[in-house]
Amino acid sequence: MKQETAEKWKSFLELLRKIASYHEAVSLMHWDLRTGAPRKGAEARSETIGLLSTEAFKLQTSTAMGEFLSYLNHQTVLGELDETGRRLVQLVQEEYDRSVKIPPAKFQEYAELTAHAETLWEDYKESGDFAGFEPYLTRIVALTQEFIDYWGPKETRYDTLLDMYEPDLTVEKLDQVFGKLRDRLVPVVDAITSAPHKPQAPFLNQLYDKEQQKKIGIFLLEQIGYDFEAGRVDETVHPFEITLNQGDVRITTHYVQDDVTNSIFSNLHEGGHALYEQNVSKELAGTPLSQGTSMGIHESQSRFWENFVGRSRDFWERYYGDLQQHFPEQLKDVTVDEFYRGINRVENSLIRIDADELTYNLHIIIRYEIEKMIFNEGLPVSELPKVWNEKYKAYLGLTPPNDSLGVLQDVHWSGGSFGYFPSYALGNMYAAQIANTLKNELPQFEGFIAEGNFAPIKEWLTEKIYKYGKSLKPAEIIMNVTGEELNPDYLADYLEQKYKGIYGL
Amino acid sequence: MKQETAEKWKSFLELLRKIASYHEAVSLMHWDLRTGAPRKGAEARSETIGLLSTEAFKLQTSTAMGEFLSYLNHQTVLGELDETGRRLVQLVQEEYDRSVKIPPAKFQEYAELTAHAETLWEDYKESGDFAGFEPYLTRIVALTQEFIDYWGPKETRYDTLLDMYEPDLTVEKLDQVFGKLRDRLVPVVDAITSAPHKPQAPFLNQLYDKEQQKKIGIFLLEQIGYDFEAGRVDETVHPFEITLNQGDVRITTHYVQDDVTNSIFSNLHEGGHALYEQNVSKELAGTPLSQGTSMGIHESQSRFWENFVGRSRDFWERYYGDLQQHFPEQLKDVTVDEFYRGINRVENSLIRIDADELTYNLHIIIRYEIEKMIFNEGLPVSELPKVWNEKYKAYLGLTPPNDSLGVLQDVHWSGGSFGYFPSYALGNMYAAQIANTLKNELPQFEGFIAEGNFAPIKEWLTEKIYKYGKSLKPAEIIMNVTGEELNPDYLADYLEQKYKGIYGL
């Protein structure tokens, strides 16, 4: 590397590190708001989040950043960098191009508003008061529409949002993939509906002590390899994973007294996200490459650990005894087979995060269609409860009795995360496709699970996916790992086979 | 106000609000490091704290700040402001003058080092490994010495540090006040040593369940008026109060299984700090006036609630029944009189935070003398354990068996807080002097305590002290409230009278 390049590169990395420090502070403030920050401090806190997010934004769009990029992003200079360096320049350039189009005052308003709305959402969800929440959501949508204009709409306005979470994903592609998936899953759902022997699991809904739920949750997280010296587990309304820095990858969970599986699977789910983040190569620390590559690939990992590992028969052959020890009264007369069938029963339900592996995708398709309506057809926010309830009736045959169990159930929109929901279904499809390759390359896969030996699985995923962070694009990951593009058939195959076994179809 | 002044004033307040947002973020990161942040993230976190503290520091010393101050701090312009406005300009000018002398790179090193050292201190305290901690402490002392040079030494080098925590306090004055206090207290300590009937309280050191300790702690905090919607209580090695913003004033406590009084009195102590911060006038929010005026006055409030309220006979006449209900087994045969005498027994001990009201001041004098030796006589850090142990032998007749129970016991030095310790003794003296006035003006004081009716007491303190925040200097507060300067006789009178009663002297 020439001396001039070496100096620019060092200063460029320092600037990125400074930006990362704002993100760490803002992430901690968000985490804190959701894990017990006092109510009366929330308004000033929102303002503080807005101010510091704006500072980070100013650095990302600063003249200094522009100058670094215009120096570094030249063929001859890129040739002096290694592959990771080139990826970093490319990614920062993309973010710069995107950010520089948003006026800082707009960005600050957006940051303050979404921080505030996320806090308010907890109350409005609790009371089911959509009308109270509507003005905030209306303003968030309006600002997002303005952002789309600043960025320039793609094929459709909503494509612009999709691309933020899953680079290069389009409405056209998603309509096709979701269509194919739906066509293959509907017959399975129908067959289950008319199956003669449906698993029943009233034992899952007895009273399960919260402290015992905590204990088994921590135990299972330790088992799959979540590093508690580089993370912690707290309780929130809506579980999430948040990375403060490479040695501080936190997750949260939600304890439901009469549903023991809720916290177990949310721990395995968020734990899957965390395994990804905890195992990104340390060399990428302090740069934007140091995180999962896309929301879809991220979700593939949470789903992999939650469903492909955590809802498998082998997993419970190994751990059901431990669970029984934590809840001897509740589970003494329940066999592992009954338990396995119980946690995999299919039921149309109102709440996305409680849905089974099969119907979950319908919850996503509903949100995807509503988001398309908002951004491509101008559906007003005031209409959301009505449209939401109609779609739940049409797709799942259910009508939410109130907005707490309907349109207010998810935190995403209050944080401005439009275009995020499809990642969940992508995650399912990626997970199945990756699991297929994993089983071919590690034929002992099921045996490892049955032994509680997750290290080889975690290592394989680290080598193939985790360590790269954002230095490979999602499409590259999928192609490198599985040898083909995203293919929804793997998920359909997996679900067909699994539910044939459980429902004796 | 002229239009030009009005515009400058608005921008000046916005700049102060931005600086406050950095302080809120940094405070939250400190709080988080001590309340369970994962170990592996601590190094990156320290760097982040350093980076953001440096940004705040740059704003405080920025050209923009210099220009605001040179405009506002003119006789004619000050005349356009109200009294609070003038105080704000004065305070910001003082902080500017102090900060502008420190090179930003030095400040950043100091911020990163102290953040890192505070985390390390927990480990070194645990293991008693002073040699391991020594290099960090040596560097902190060296940087502090450099800062003294930048600021310019006062009468002595240590005076410069004292002034930071208690404006206008000097070694000369403190030597006098501490001398007088010691002369009056030593005879009381001697009389107690030879008293025929000493209270015994083995019942305090049974096993007290932590969850029950938490419950009674929260109950008592609610009773004295700590607002849980504007704060929260967590567990740390060393209890503290920290203000994130006016609606977010947090405290921490430490539960000792075989000493029930430890968490109770640390809650009342930190709760006293918090009552001060929670009741500063809302009009001062977002400015540096929005906090307690000095460490000494702050400590007077923690001591007032801990000792003058919490260790009084009246308080336990009211609350002993509640305590017994939380610990029926442990306290069933203990009378309120035995309990009251038990919590007020005097014993020479090794640990400052566990010391009784009487000998506590000796712990402070030891630290005061050592800090003077470090900064005025160049005592090397490597000598600290030896000097510490010698002084404990001389003043309290005890030799720490290890450095965990000796020189490593307090967090202050690892955070660079040299000159802070004297505030604790000042707090005791201020508290006694203020309590004397309070009893004259609210003759029902003791009755209010016996009824558990703390609102009139909190209101009196709010009106006289809390609401002003930093808009009055400590000497003004004491003069306004009590009509005279700091006078150690009030503390001596109070302690004499109290211990004569308890020990039948």
UniProtKB/TrEMBL annotation, chains A, B:
Belongs to the peptidase M32 family. Its cofactor is Zn(2+). SUPFAM superfamilies: Metalloproteases ('zincins'), catalytic domain. The keyword Oxidoreductase does not apply. This is Metal-dependent carboxypeptidase. Its EC number is 3.4.17.19. It comes from the Bacteria. Zn(2+) binds at H269, H273, E299. Keywords: Carboxypeptidase, Hydrolase, Metal-binding, Metalloprotease, Protease, Zinc. It comes from Fontibacillus phaseoli.
